[in-house]
Structures are given as structure tokens and as C-alpha cells.
Amino acid sequence: MSTSVVKAGRLKPEVRLGQVVSEFQSDLSDSDKAQFRSHQTKASTTPLDIRDVMRLTAEINRCRPHERCFGPRLTNQ
Fold this sequence. Notes:
Elements: H1 3-8, H2 13-26, H3 30-43, H4 50-63, H5 71-74
């Protein structure tokens, strides 16, 4: 088990979420990062819901058909 997982158990949920989002961003290509940041900016004025998350991950997965999918990693729906 990685030490980040062990430490994460002691952190506030908001901090853990921030860490997970940072890890997610680090896995993205430069163009995907730009698109993700654009969605984040839009989310600061209008809260996102699960449909928005699934739409974004579907777009990323369409652009990268031979790489791992992100959607199932972000939700259990």
C-alpha cells in the first residue's frame, strides 16, 4: 500500500479530493489538461454534476481509444 493512501485516511475529505484531482491531472496529456482546466473554470461558476464528469471522461476516452478509460475510475455509476 502506498504511503499516500495511508496518509490520505487522516486528511479532510476536501484535501483528499484535491489530491485525487491532482493525480488525475498528472495522468492527462497536455491537450487533455487544457480541456480539464477549461471545465474546472466553468465549474467555478456553475457546479458540475455526475453527468458533467461522465461527459468529460467520455470525451477523453474517445480521443484515446487504445489507452485506459478514466470514467470507471471516477464513479461507480
